[in-house]
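[Help] Beginner question about ligand-bound structures

Sorry if this is basic. My supervisor gave me a protein sequence and a SMILES string for zinc ion and asked me to "get the holo structure". I don't really know what that means in practice or what format the answer should be in. Inputs are pasted below exactly as I got them.
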Amino acid sequence: MADLIVRGGTIVDGSGGEPYPADVVVSGGRIVEIGRPGPTDAAELDASGLFVAPGFIDVHSHSDYTLLVDPRAVSAVHQGVTLEVIGNCGHGCFPVRDRELARNAIYGYDEAVPLAWSGAHEYFDALERARPAVNVLSLVPNGQLRLDAVGLRQRPATRDELRDMEARLSESLEEGAWGLSTGLEYATEAGVPEEEIESLCRVVARVGGLYATHTRKRDDGAAGAVVEAVRTAERAGVRLQVSHLVPRSGLEEGERCIEVVEEAAGRGLDVAFDMHTRLFGFTYLPTALPAWALEGGPRALEQLLREPQARERMKRHESILSAGSDWGRIVLLDNDVWPQQSRRDVASISAERGQDPLDTVYDLLLEGADGMHRLMVMIHCYTEEQQLQAFTHPLCMPGSDATTLAPDGRLAGSVFHGAYTWAAWFYRFMVRQTRTLTAPDAIRRLTSLPAERLGLGERGLLRVGAFADLAIFDPETFGEVATTFAPNQLAAGMRHVVINGSLTLANGVLTGVRAGTVLRRGGGG
Ligand SMILES: [Zn+2]
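Answer (accepted):
No worries, everyone starts somewhere. Holo just means with the ligand present. The predicted complex, written as structure tokens, is below.
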């Protein structure tokens, strides 16, 4: 008995092969037929004039917390996303020992949802109880492993601490996580030596998991940091995914990063990379602070920010924001601490105040000390040329590098650039605007390529027997609507989305059905 028939569409099956006209029959959450079935009693979806593709996979998501806050994943579903890979960049929700400390490595933390778990299994259960609209799977974030065992101290883990981290990692993998991620540029992981990561990667290699890394340096020296990632993976024998590979330091350095990956692939390393779709980087303002300044919590930090000597010490810290010392590249996003300075760059704000740019940053953090994570900045650092360089490469797949959001509900006021646009931009820019990728190739990079990286056999391809995750869209209009300063607008052109056989978006409107599952490694799916 069929549950649903998608009629009259053009199949783009995710393999990169030629599109062809056919109907898709869904039953029991799976695709059971692709062809020309006769009339039945099953519900039908009209797909004439539309592409019928496998649901899109966001290989680089940060929705770890926002899926608990608002499980509808509205911004994602409107782009055809049916699976999100969370736990990236060393950020995520487990393992957690000290709940206060853990917030340092979580995107989108919200007090509305109490952090009431410790390990992977408990977190996955909490996520399942929230009934997310999309499927989810997670890596083990090294930021949490570190906070759990070492705290915010910027030094290598001791032998005992490392044993502890290996045990927690192994346990998390047993409980269904798919690999390990690092965020080596962040204060939480600044003290991590290469050998420590290698030891952890050996644990991941034993179960055939994936190692995804936000490398140590993404400005000058970025290629050297990719060399380190490759060396770590080769020594540990682990499969490697370099996160948002393109550095903030220009086209040539980007070329070198890609060459390093190509050479490693040539030597036989199982490696690929992803890239977000923004022309700017994007982070929290407290990133400008050294880890030691954050160690004592908000009250102690306030104290430090008031002391001129402490400020002088802080100024010696090189951060993502200070690198290049060009504060004209750093733009403060909309915020309620200094709302009148929103959308202005730090160089002009500090010039107006007649002070050093870092003092401006410290003053801002001091005034916003009660909710520093509301202060976000944009770093202008990429060009369209760099994007083309990355996205046309055969080993590259796009990812949001954002959290899911929604224009209504609890997340309506949150901004995370890329959330509403990444897949839609990728398709419009690469296929329609620059014609640098064919539609089947662009769709392959959104579907079977990330599925292969993750070792998902039953998703990412539109074929009989696979889970019925479908993105059904108008290839002429699918594209982003949101802009830099009006970022919270749903993408256009996505008509129907089916997740695990359930109609989640119908005629561009959410049905209210949330049929996503938490995929646990080794648990099928
Ligand atoms: Zn990252």
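A couple of things worth pointing out: Residues 89, 183, 214, 243-244 surround zinc ion (CB under 6 Å). The chain has 18 helices and 23 strands. Feel free to follow up in the thread.
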